[in-house]
């Protein structure tokens, strides 16, 4: 169960880039695309 909760936390933290610009945000489109690409692949 702990592994599943950790996976969800990691997912939420990494996808903050798409929703908010406070803690996690990409300064450029290239960084944003690279980060999301690494997460998906």
Automatic annotation (TrEMBL):
One example of a Gene Ontology biological process annotation: DNA transposition
Molecular functions (GO terms): DNA binding; transposase activity
Organism: Spirosoma pollinicola
Domain of life (superkingdom): Bacteria
Short name of any one Pfam family annotated for the protein: DDE_Tnp_IS1
Protein name: Transposase
